[in-house]
From TrEMBL, chain A:
Species for this entry: Marinobacter salinexigens
Pfam families linked: Peripla_BP_6 (PF13458)
Statement: the UniProt record of this protein carries the keyword Repeat: no
PANTHER family, per the entry: LEUCINE-SPECIFIC-BINDING PROTEIN, PERIPLASMIC BINDING PROTEIN OF ABC TRANSPORTER FOR NATURAL AMINO ACIDS
Family the UniProt entry places it in: Belongs to the leucine-binding protein family.
Protein name: ABC transporter substrate-binding protein
Keyword Amino-acid biosynthesis: no
Signal peptide region: 1-23
UniProt keyword terms in alphabetical order: Signal
Stretches assigned to the Leucine-binding protein domain: 26-364
From TrEMBL, chain B:
One cellular-component annotation, GO: plasma membrane
Membrane protein topology class: Multi-pass membrane protein
Protein name (Swiss-Prot/TrEMBL): Branched-chain amino acid ABC transporter permease
Entry keyword annotation includes Transmembrane: yes
From TrEMBL, chain C:
Organism, scientific name: Marinobacter salinexigens
Cited InterPro entries: ABC_transp_permease, LivM-like
Compartments (UniProt record): Cell inner membrane
GO molecular function, one term: branched-chain amino acid transmembrane transporter activity
Lineage, uppermost ranks: Bacteria, Pseudomonadati, Pseudomonadota, Gammaproteobacteria, Pseudomonadales
Name under which the protein is recorded: Branched-chain amino acid ABC transporter permease
Keyword Amino-acid biosynthesis appears in the UniProt entry: no
Major subcellular location class: membrane
Length: 375, 290, 294
């Protein structure tokens, strides 16, 4: 575990020291959970961002080297704001990668005030679409994901009665809202919704409640270590129904959990075998370095950094400064971005749309069951 | 049937709380040390058990031995190298509490660095529930947890009532000076109390490791509950602590019948708060000191 | 760089207000509260609510927050009057856990776990403090004011009564002190000044959520007081500065593995608590005479 992290760490460490030395270099920031219970997400996000910076530098897209400066949020809003303050005020970066719904919401005010672009590639709370002009999302938000999940449950599997277990935060509340909205028109029904605290660890009681409502499927809206505990305890306590969740289930430790086998989850759809040159290079290099297929999180943060490189390259060509304000203007002026997964465009609210796929946990990389086009 | 199921769940959780609370109460009652790091002992025992089974591939009996050894060692070391020096020069209640809290933080983070911060659990077929009655699921672990707790309590009771060391421990909680005049060493007795109190968390830790699973912060919640149980049960009464622990586990689960899980912790602490204000001596306790 | 230092100084000052007010009840009244973050939270939420719904004026939002905190602090004063030692710690712990649940569930007021975003900049006589410089001055003035109030109080007969209660409640009673009134007043005063820190925090961060007002914060502030030194004026401020500088200082040590920094920071502050209690229970800044500290 420690050994595996080392290359990324040394890279981060060297980036830290070198950022002071070379004035020509372009730095962007990242507020990721690097410690605490969600640190494993940080590792995944970092691998994507680092790969994109490496590619941009190999291609000499910018006049200087592109660096990513990492700050730790522990996935907590207050730490996120302190980290963002440091990036904006000390490093004076024009562009910051963000993750987690709570942290993203917390830093959005600072992003707006300091005219710094904040880009989220991990949090999927639906209200992330409404955090101001300087807050962008390179990930489809939960409303897209939940829609696809509902459709698959009702139309493909005939599972109509759904019970939800959700963490009572903006993300969970968003998913609850979307399930209520999407199930009914399809002829489904949200039977019960159980809210839990982010620190809860005992779910045998919830399992009993779920069993007694006897749904066709159980939707889990949690993240990190907690979702593993929920899955294990549901299965241990005799809940045999179909489990379904959103992209947080792409976490490798969940994929490896024996009790999670057969569970469904949604992510944005990226065709890893695509012949499109951007996607192919990303997938090939990631496989060469890590020996496995990337997940959509890796791709999202690769894309987030790539969007910056594309915009900054264009600004440099026009002789403009790479500031948050100019980046925003340039994004609005750009129709299409060539990213991993194909050619995409931003909506007016700064959020990317992407097709959604439904996958099954198999213990390996997850088996794709169906792909829904963006709507 | 749901209610019956929740009561059964409450029994399992309550048994775990009762064991940890009894250990805390035993230590606190006899040595007057507010051992907040009791939760850390729980975490250490649970992770050692997991390590022995999953990483070393040992038989579960060896895992239990390792967990017990680790817990007892941790308890005795803390008593000797942290609490004893503090008590020597001042030992106000709060000084002890702060140091104990500090060591709890250290343990949680060291465990996170050594064993990783994500969720782990001991995989065993025993945690898998079977349908006992229609729609009533019970895992063999529930029975084991309840049985083990009963055995532990009987053993502790026998020890305290019928052995020399046990009687001395009870005497220590009554009057330190008296113990000294009888030629017994309070320091040695204190080590006994820590060893016995720490070993009581081991079954609880093992059941948690195999049923709900572990993360480095797992001891935190258990500690808060033990503290609440000790006070609600009455300080100095092991029986009271165990009873209150069981009750809290029950309430936490049965409350789900009517309210959401997010209220269960608040419910426990509301009960604690009102107990302290209106009946600080608890169920079985002596009158609250000053 | 200056902006970063400004940012740190503002946060240190806010936490210094918290540790100073906690020290007032721990160090002088002997009330070991683990619920300090509750009043910090009430101050922050109330100020944010007033700022967003009524006016962001400092002289409206902060006083309302302080009054509300003073009223709710009676819930802490009640157990403080009835029990001491471990019972009171447990009661304050219970209050803290209850408050966290309420903060998470009362969404109309607190925004739940998602929190309150977009709190407007604070205004003083219609002048909005947007620049970090201005805010720093405001925070420092508030800190100075809090220290002055507590310093003065400690040296009045009220302060002497407090200390006599701390040292021996029965002796104070025999000396004819009105323990109920004195204890209640000290809790109310400490809590309302804590709410001032909460208000500053809300305006400064422009975002608050329940994670800033949980048990961990109460413990952090308690550690600041203990590590700095209880029963002194300087101690809590030194403690606040040390603990707030620790994370920043660690992140500049590039040889430390980045993913472990959070843990290392926690381990350092946990160990500091243990070692200080063993070797120097009075804290870094010990009171002049030992008699005063015990």
């Amino acid at each position: 575990m420690i050994r595996k992290r080392l290359p990324a760490l040394t890279l981060a460490a060297t980036l830290f020291s070198s950022s002071v030395a070379l004035a020509d270099d372009v730095s962007i920031g990242a507020v990721f959970p690097l410690s605490g219970p969600n640190a494993s997400y940080g590792d995944v996000f970092m691998s994507g961002a680092n790969l994109a910076a490496k590619h941009a530098n190999e291609d000499h897209m910018l006049s200087g080297d592109l660096n990513v400066l990492y700050e730790d949020s522990q996935a907590l809003p207050q730490h996120g704001v302190i980290a963002m303050n440091k990036l904006v005020n000390v490093e004076e970066v024009p562009y910051v990668l963000s993750a987690f719904t709570g942290v993203s919401k917390a830093i959005s005010t600072l992003a707006q005030r300091s005219e710094t672009v904040a880009v989220n590639g991990g949090g999927v709370g639906p209200d992330l679409a409404a955090l101001g002009e300087y807050f962008w999302n390179v990930i489809p938000l939960a409303n897209n994901e939940v829609g696809a999940a509902s459709k698959y449950l009702v139309e493909e599997l005939g599972l109509k009665r759904v019970t939800l277990i959700y963490v009572d935060d903006p993300l969970g509340a968003g998913i609850l809202n979307e399930l209520e909205k999407t199930l009914e028109p399809l002829g489904g029904e949200l039977v019960e919704a159980h809210s839990i605290t982010p620190s809860a660890q005992q779910f045998s009681g919830v399992a009993a409640r779920v069993r007694s409502s006897n749904p066709d499927a159980v939707y889990i809206a949690s993240y990190g270590a907690q979702q593993l505990q929920i899955v294990k305890q549901l299965r241990d306590n005799g809940v045999d129904q179909q489990i379904i969740s959103y992209s947080a289930f792409s976490l490798p430790s969940l994929q490896a959990l024996p009790e999670a086998k057969g569970a469904l989850y949604t992510t944005q759809s990226i065709d890893w075998d695509s012949t499109d040159p951007v996607t192919k290079r990303f997938v090939d290099d990631y496989r060469a370095a890590n020996g496995k297929t990337p997940t959509s999180y890796v791709a999202n943060y690769y894309n987030a950094v790539r969007v910056f490189a594309l915009l900054a390259k264009e600004l440099e060509a026009q002789g403009k400064d790479v500031t948050g304000e100019n980046l925003l203007a340039q994004r609005k002026a750009t129709d299409k971005f060539e990213l991993v997964g194909g050619s995409v465009s931003f909506q007016d609210n700064g959020t990317l749309l992407a097709p959604i796929q439904v996958l099954e946990v198999t213990g390996g990389a997850g088996e794709i069951k169906k792909v829904y086009a963006e709507d | 049937m749901l209610l019956l199921q929740l009561i059964l769940n409450g029994l399992q959780v309550g048994a775990i709380y009762a064991l940890t609370a009894a250990g805390f109460s035993l230590i606190f009652g006899s040595t007057k040390i507010f051992h907040f790091a009791h939760g850390a002992t729980f975490t250490i025992a649970a992770y050692l058990f997991h390590y022995a089974l999953t990483n070393l591939g040992l038989h579960w009996t060896l895992g239990v031995a390792m967990a017990a050894g680790g817990a007892v060692l941790f308890g005795i070391l803390l008593d000797r190298f942290m609490y004893a020096p503090i008590q020597r020069h001042e030992g106000s209640f709060f000084t002890v509490f702060v140091a104990s809290f500090g060591i709890g933080i250290v343990v949680e983070n060291v465990i996170g660095m050594v064993f990783g911060r994500s969720f782990i659990s001991v995989s065993t077929s025993l945690s898998r529930s079977v349908e006992l009655l229609p729609d009533l699921y019970v895992s063999p672990l529930v029975g084991l947890a309840v049985l083990t707790s009963l055995v532990c309590f009987v053993a502790v009771h026998m020890f305290l009532m019928h052995t020399h060391a046990g009687m001395a421990l009870r005497a220590l909680s009554e009057n330190t000076e008296l113990v000294k005049t009888f030629g017994l060493s309070p320091r040695r007795l204190s080590a006994y109390a820590f060893a016995l109190g720490s070993v009581l968390v081991v079954p609880a830790a093992i059941f948690t490791a195999s049923s709900s699973g572990l993360n480095p912060a797992v001891g935190h919640h258990v500690m808060l509950i033990s503290l609440a149980a000790t006070i609600v049960g009455g300080i100095g009464s092991i029986r009271g602590a165990a009873f209150a622990g069981l009750l809290i586990g029950m309430v936490e689960n049965v409350a789900l019948w009517q309210v959401g899980t997010q209220w269960s912790e608040a419910l426990t602490f509301a009960v604690l708060f009102f107990f302290i204000i209106f009946r600080p001596s608890g169920f079985f306790g002596r009158a609250a000191v000053s | 760089m200056t902006a970063y230092i400004l940012n740190l100084v503002v946060l240190i000052s806010i936490y210094a207000i918290l540790s100073t007010t906690l020290n007032f009840i721990i160090g002088y009244a002997g009330i070991f509260s683990l619920a300090h973050a509750v009043f910090f939270g009430i101050g922050a939420y109330t100020s944010a609510f007033v700022a967003m719904n009524l006016t962001p004026s400092f002289f409206v939002a902060i006083p309302i927050a302080m009054v509300l905190a003073a009223l709710t602090s009676l819930a802490l004063a009640l157990p403080a009057l009835r029990v001491r030692g471990e019972y009171f710690v447990a009661a304050s712990l219970g209050l803290q856990m209850l408050a966290v649940t309420l903060f998470s569930e009362w969404k109309g007021f607190t925004g739940g776990i998602g929190g309150v975003i977009g709190i407007p900049p604070v205004e003083i006589f219609g002048f909005a403090l947007v620049k970090p410089w201005h805010f720093l001055i405001l925070t420092l003035v508030c800190l100075a004011l809090v220290i002055a109030i507590i310093q003065r109080l400690v040296h009045t007969s009220f302060g002497r009564s407090l200390k006599s209660i701390r040292d021996s409640e029965s002796a104070a009673l025999a000396a004819g002190k009105n323990i109920t009134v004195i204890k209640t007043l000290s809790v109310v005063l400490s809590s309302s000044l804590t709410a001032l820190a909460g208000g500053l925090y809300a305006f400064y961060m422009a975002f608050i959520n329940v994670e800033s007002f949980m048990l961990a914060t109460s413990v952090l502030v308690m550690a600041m007081v203990i590590i700095g030194g209880t029963g002194t004026i300087l101690g809590p401020i030194v403690g606040a500065a040390l603990l707030m500088l620790l994370p920043g200082a660690l992140s500049y040590l590039s040889f430390l593995p980045q993913t472990e920094i959070g843990s290392i920071q926690q381990i350092i502050y946990g160990s500091a608590m243990v070692l200080l209690m063993i070797y120097r229970p009075g804290g870094i800044v010990s009171p002049k005479t030992r008699g005063e500290a015990a």
